[in-house]
Design goal:
310 residues, mainly alpha, single chain, 82% helix, 11 helices
Length: 310
């Protein structure tokens, strides 16, 4: 029940920050377009010379990359790596900066919103959030390593057998384990961002470890909280894909509707991201009560004391 309450509370907090959501969507989309420019330098020449490449790109087929490599020779894989690295770096830094501005305003829904306050929080929290994103590589890598150990153990047990079914089921178990573990780590990082934003601290490593410990102590609550958002994102993605299939090949009008639908889907994903941060802000004081939390709360017009500690 508690994860569901936090889920709805997160949605309410996200809905209350509609202006910030539009600002977040605009800059995220703009920077995503800039990040795609290096890839367009590789894709456009290939698509202009090949109808097969156009068809493969529509279906996101990896054979499209193979065709580019065949056309350009050995330089294409290196160019693809450079383009991917540049796009990932741009999107990563933008995501950190935008989350640094959005999380504090979602964690404190009573605080007034303005673009100036958004960018002020973004500048103040950028470096702690960036360090947190780097620290998060460790638990994600650990989850990937554990999934690899499961695969190695399955091959050690059934790799020489005549039946393939045990390995198939073991691969399914490994995939589910990896998805759930990565989701729990992502949820822990949401709590860590809330802790950094509310405490005004720069101790990113301590926030990261404390949030992972919180997941360890309350696995059921964290799992169902992540499951609520995973189901919501899955439903949104399924609806978008189904509508996009129906609009393909419908002419100019259908193409315009498809572009609008795509941006609505991007906005929906950003809203769910906002809601996840809001849900973390709702749950963190409940799962980790602060000393003196039972005292009388200060009046609404009084500035809260900076007693939120990591």
């Amino acid at each position: 029940m508690l994860p569901l309450i936090a889920f709805w509370s997160g949605l309410e907090r996200a809905w209350g920050r509609k202006r910030m959501l539009v600002l977040y969507w605009f800059f995220h989309t703009l920077c995503a377009a800039l990040a795609a420019l290096p890839w367009m330098g590789i894709a456009v020449p290939a698509l202009s010379r090949s109808r097969l490449g156009d068809e493969l790109m529509k279906e996101f087929d990896l054979g499209w990359l193979a065709e580019i490599a065949a056309q350009a020779g050995t330089g294409a894989p290196a160019a693809a790596i450079v383009a991917s690295g540049a796009a990932a770096l741009i999107l990563g830094l933008v995501a950190v900066c935008l989350s640094a501005g959005a999380v504090p305003l979602l964690a404190l829904p009573e605080s007034p919103y303005s673009p100036e306050s958004f960018w002020r929080h973004a500048g103040r929290n950028f470096w702690p959030f960036l360090r947190l994103s780097l620290y998060s590589v460790v638990p994600y890598s650990a989850a990937l390593a554990l999934a690899g150990m499961l695969r190695s153990g399955a091959h050690a047990l059934w790799g020489d057998g005549l039946e393939a079914a045990p390995l198939v089921w073991a691969n399914h178990v490994r995939l589910v384990f990896l998805i759930v573990t990565a989701g729990l780590v992502s949820t822990a990082m949401d709590f860590a961002k809330v802790r950094l934003a509310l405490s005004g601290s720069r101790q990113s490593l301590r926030a990261c470890l404390g949030s992972l410990r919180l997941v360890w102590r309350h696995p059921g609550v964290m799992f169902w909280l992540w499951a609520c958002f995973a189901i919501a994102q899955g439903l949104a993605a399924g609806l978008y894909v189904e509508l996009a299939k129906r609009l393909e090949g419908g002419g100019v009008a259908a193409f315009v509707v498809l572009v609008i639908l795509q941006q609505c889907y991007v906005m929906c994903r950003a809203g769910l991201r906002f809601a996840a941060w809001g849900a973390a802000a709702e749950l963190d004081p409940i799962l980790r009560p602060m000393p003196g939390a039972d005292l009388i709360a200060p009046p609404p017009d009084q500035e809260p004391a900076p007693d939120y500690q990591i």
